[in-house]
Amino acid sequence: MKLRYNLKCPGQLFLLLFFILEALPVAGQAPQALYIGTATTEITPPLPAAADGQMRIRVANTVETPLTANVLVLESRATGSSGSRTVFVSCDLVTIPTELRDLVRQSVARRVPDLDPKKIILNATHTHTAGVVRDGWYTIPEGVTQVKDYQAFIADRVADAILKAWNNRVRGSVSWGLGHAKVAYNRRAAYADGSARMYGATNVPEFRKIEGYEDQSVNSLFFWDDSGKLIAVCINVASPAQVVESRSAINADYWHPVREFMKAEFGEQLVVLGWIGAAGDQTPRPMYSNQAEYRMVALRHGDDQEDASGKAEFRTDEYLDEIGRRIFNSVVDIYGVVKDDRHQELVVDHKVAELELPMRLVLEEEYEYSKKMRDEDLNDPERRIPFSRRIAWYQEVLDRYEAQKNNAQPIYPVEIHVLRLGDVAISTNPFELFTEFGIQMKARSNALQTFVIQLVGAGTYVPTKEAVAGGHYSAVVQSNRVGPEGGQILVDRTVEMINGLF
To answer: Average pLDDT in the 56-67 region?
Structure first.
């Protein structure tokens, strides 16, 4: 059917111009060829090493699985010129302190002067069985790997891996897909009196509900080289890697079996990047139906159905494999659907923004409580060293309260990234962001599919208003540098940036 227009008619002339303009790419957004580089490096700390992520110091003398940093370099190219350049680095760490990020960027700037260091995105998988990377948070004994030494070790290894990935860039293609797997369980239980507890009991008469949202999506990106070989996969799940979080050992948690399963299926060349979605109130361990869940895991592995105490135990290697299996099965299912929908030329854009978010203010009663708790640990010789992290946790609140006397409206600066990759948006934040905020971003995004990556930075929880009202760890002032108001500003600005690219 041919459309006929009377160009003497202003209305039809406008309609014709509308269709022509709609068919043209937005200025600066023309599709470009995609070039891809990959690398993996080991960042397991020298033993003995302190393990990060708990209030009590743990010294690891055993490496149960290696820790790795997995690198993906993306570059778009038009004829005769380069467009957008981005480096993703997924690290088996609890968080990415600002000083570690800056060390990596400085090291890369010396090795790859053509790469903008601001376009290097490092995220943590939030395994609590990685080496300590936060200086001043623990009192680490002599003879145990020190934080500054470990930071320098990581920065050197990661910078070399980025250089390798940069040098092995090839023209390639990408596909994206969405699946689902039961990995995330909201870990905050709410009770009849309005209170809530992280990992609170659910088998008591006072229990009323699981406090907040869960996100079971498995967002995946697949990257092929110019020969059609799958060389990288980015897997985005809204749950931290905290199955075996309390061990005094080095372990990459559930990402290790995910990588092992993926490489067995697609080859040793595959680089697997783990991206944790908004998951500040999530855990990979169940909060209810524990016996039923554990029975299935036990039967699958041919084990006893409960430990010696009669309690279902999920901090096990078998449950690590269970979570890894769920993720792997979902990714393989997605792959089967999207593997032939590959994009070699597409719109690529990468924006970086510095935000100033309002800090959560410390109330006088919170100051007094923190001082009391700090002093109890500090004045007890048996607790002073083992609980040095808890002392620092309370001390930060005292320092913030004193600083508020001179600045009644303190701000917390953060760096966020938003990328467009064809029909996909990728956004980052430095927090342990409660899942409700991530769902807002996805729901309000104009992109076909939206990835949210947390812990691209130093961490600390950002809770919802409901969580603050319920209280307990993750929603108290000691856990939060930024409160719900700042979380909403972060969401609004991120969505604005995403939609500006589409």
So the answer is: 97
DSSP 246-264: T-SSB--TTHHHHHHHHHH
Cβ contact 46:180 at 8 Å: no
Please tell me the distance from the alpha carbon of residue 96 to that of residue 119, in angstroms, as a whole number. Answer: 15
Q: How far apart are the first and last CA of the chain?
A: 30
**Domain locations in the chain?**
32-182+211-285+323-350+415-458+488-500, 362-404
179 near 220, Cβ under 8 Å?
Answer: yes
Residues whose CB falls within 8 Å of the CB of residue 226, separated by 6 or more in sequence, listed in order: 170, 171, 172
Give the sheet arrangement for strand 217-224, strand by strand: 173-180, 217-224, 230-237, 271-276
Tell me how far CA of residue 379 lies from CA of 376, 390, 394, 478, in angstroms.
6, 13, 14, 20
CB-CB contact of 129 with 253 (8 Å): yes
Encode 473-498: b = buried (16+ Cβ within 10 Å), e = exposed. Answer: ebbbbbbbbbbbebbbebbebbbebb
Q: Report the percent of the chain where pLDDT is more than 90.
A: 90
State the pLDDT confidence band at 459, using cuts at 50, 70 and 90.
Answer: confident
Helices 98-111, 147-167: axis angle to 10 degrees equals 40
Q: By the 8 A CB rule, do 168 and 72 touch?
A: no
pLDDT tens figures, 66-117: 999 999 999 999 876 678 999 999 999 999 999 999 999 999 999 999 999 9
Measure the CA–CA gap between 327 and 255, rounded to whole angstroms.
9
* The pLDDT of residue 476 is above 60: yes
Whether the predicted pLDDT of 475 surpasses 60: yes
Helices (H) and strands (E) in the chain, counts: 12, 23
DSSP-derived secondary structure for 30-80: --EEEEEEEEEEE-PPPSSEEEPSSSS-EEE--BSS--EEEEEEEEEEETT
Contact 203, 197 (CB under 8 A): no
Question: Taking Cα atoms as reference points, which of 416, 413, 400 lies closest to residue 360?
Answer: 400
Q: How many Cβ atoms from other residues are within 10 Å of residue 437's Cβ? A: 24
CA 240 to chain centre: 8
Question: Which pLDDT does position 13 carry in this prediction?
Answer: 36
- Would you say 456 and 427 are in contact if contact means Cβ atoms under 8 Å apart? no
